[in-house]
Design a protein that fits this description.
The chain is an alpha/beta fold and about 230 residues long. The chain folds into two domains: about 5-125, Rossmann fold; about 130-225, Arc Repressor Mutant, subunit A (Orthogonal Bundle). It has eight helices and twelve strands. It has a five-stranded parallel sheet with strand order 2-1-3-4-5, sandwiched between helices. A four-stranded antiparallel sheet has the order 6-7-8-9, covered by helices on one side. It has a three-stranded antiparallel sheet with strand order 10-12-11. It is elongated, with a radius of gyration of 19 Å. The two termini are about 35 Å apart. The relative contact order is 0.11. The structure holds calcium ion (CA). The site of calcium ion (CA) has 6 residues, from loops.
Length: about 230
């Protein structure tokens, strides 16, 4: 099984690198971000299994970031552990109410950090490891693969993310703007017609499996994934 990916969101470089060092040694894949903007990009691009979020960040607070992510359907499965120097009980409660799965007070030992991460990943279960099936398609989110009747369909990273999003949100129309936000990330500037380009590539890749018709254009509205009326 692929290593679980942990995103470390911390603006203090020395602490971030120390954490990254210990997590890599413990066998995790590590992604680093020094503020919320970078964190959001990393979450959209790298799909971490868990985010360690420092409370005090330079742009918006780690608590706000946590709240924001937990409100988004796409990221609700992302486990979040808040890191903080605030040792007070009420801060802990605020952090957990904000949607964090756990809360660690600085200073902490690497051993404690790894133990808490393991516990949270165990609790959050294999929500990220499912296989999503629709029609002839099977999307293996753990293996990052798309299969059709036992054959792998090769997709570029953006096409994979687009298909992943659409397959996990079927029968709903998404506008180009919504798809840009959900698949490319809210802070990335790309033109709306970029969506059309990737939809075209995705359909082309799905054509052999006769699954291209699942990606439906809804005139004046956007795109929908559906295996009905195909
Ligand atoms: Ca900080």
């Amino acid at each position: 099984m692929a290593a679980k990916k942990i995103l470390v969101v911390e603006d203090e470089q020395a602490i971030r690198e120390m954490i990254a060092f210990h997590l890599s040694r413990a066998g995790y894949g590590v992604i680093e971000a020094s503020d919320c903007r970078e964190a959001r990009e990393a979450i959209a691009d790298d799909r971490p299994d868990l985010a360690l979020v420092d409370w005090m960040l330079p742009d918006i607070s780690g608590l706000e970031l946590t709240r924001m992510l937990k409100r988004e359907k796409d990221y609700e499965d992302l486990a979040i552990i808040m890191l903080t120097a605030r040792a007070e009980e009420r801060d802990k409660v605020t952090g957990l109410e904000g949607g964090a799965d756990d809360y660690i007070t600085k200073p902490f030992s690497p051993r404690e950090l790894v133990a808490r991460i393991q516990a949270v990943l165990r609790r959050s279960g294999s929500a990220n490891d499912e296989v999503v099936s629709a029609g002839v398609l099977e999307l293996d989110t753990a293996g990052h693969r798309v299969m059709s009747l036992g054959k792998e369909i090769k997709l570029g990273p953006t096409e994979y993310r687009l298909l992943n999003f659409l397959m996990t949100h079927p029968e709903r129309v998404y506008s180009r703007t919504q798809l840009l936000d959900r698949v490319w990330g809210a802070n990335v500037y790309v033109e709306e017609r970029t969506v059309d380009v990737h939809v075209r590539r995705l359909r082309k890749a799905l054509a052999d499996a006769k699954a291209d018709a699942y990606i439906q254009t809804v005139r004046g509205a956007g795109y929908r994934f559906s295996t009905r009326d195909v």
